[in-house]
Write a structure and sequence with these properties.
Layout: H1 5-15, E1 25-29, H2 33-45, E2 48-51, E3 54-59, E4 62-71, E5 76-78, H3 87-108, E6 121-125, H4 133-143, E7 149-153, H5 159-166, E8 171-173, H6 196-204
Helix pairs in contact: 1-2, 2-6
Length: 205
């Protein structure tokens, strides 16, 4: 287990050391929790850190679960269970999350768009992959930006997710893959929600 997100980021930085001082590389964090993992990676490798804003599409009667995800560029992925909901319900969920994305871009990135990613090595970072919708839509978005290389680096996920994401990107790094994986939080001794203010402070530093 990792003590916290910072320690997890430090471990990932060791796995990514070949990208140290690579001026073509950039670290893109999935907020909010992914930022605290990405910060020590960017610091250790001397790389720029920025955000890619994505949102889970929460299941109406069980918001902790999801039926897919949407990115700030409007890219969408759906999970198979989305078929159980009608178009009106899905459109309402999409509208809610688009509004939340706009708010987060304004608050966390001062309204800026994504940085230029053409011909760059992009290291996508989150604090773990559960179902995988948010990371999948992040990859989908980044691929459209004509990147040279995409690396996904997360501290923890399950065996099924490893097989899936290895086939989607150039490199997939995940040091903790429990055989019986049920939640990202199982990889951390200290697990808590991360506030928008913490994200802002981390990016300032």
């Amino acid at each position: 287990m990792f003590l916290n997100r910072q320690q997890a980021g430090q471990r990932l930085a060791k796995e990514l050391k070949k990208y140290k001082d690579d001026k073509s590389a950039i670290v893109l964090a999935v907020p909010n929790g992914g930022v605290l993992v990405a910060k020590p990676i960017a610091e250790s490798l001397n790389l720029n850190l920025d955000l890619i804003v994505v949102r889970k599409l929460p299941m109406p009667n069980q918001p902790e679960a999801g039926i897919g995800a949407i990115s700030e560029t409007g890219d969408i992925v759906f999970q198979p269970q989305a078929r159980f909901y009608n178009k009106q319900t899905i459109d309402r969920i999409l509208a809610q999350q688009k509004k939340e994305i706009e708010t987060r871009i304004r608050i966390l990135r001062s309204g800026r768009g994504l940085p230029d990613l053409e011909n760059r090595t992009v290291i996508l970072v989150d604090d773990g992959i559960a179902m995988g919708s948010t990371m999948e839509v992040a990859i989908k978005t980044v691929k459209k930006k004509k990147t040279a290389r995409i690396i996904v680096a997360v501290p923890i996920t399950g065996p099924r997710q490893v097989r899936k994401f290895k086939s989607m990107v150039d490199e997939f790094i995940c040091p903790l893959v429990p055989r019986f994986f049920y939640a990202v939080a199982q990889g951390y001794q200290n697990w808590r929600d991360v506030s928008c203010q913490e994200v802002i402070e981390a990016l300032k530093k």
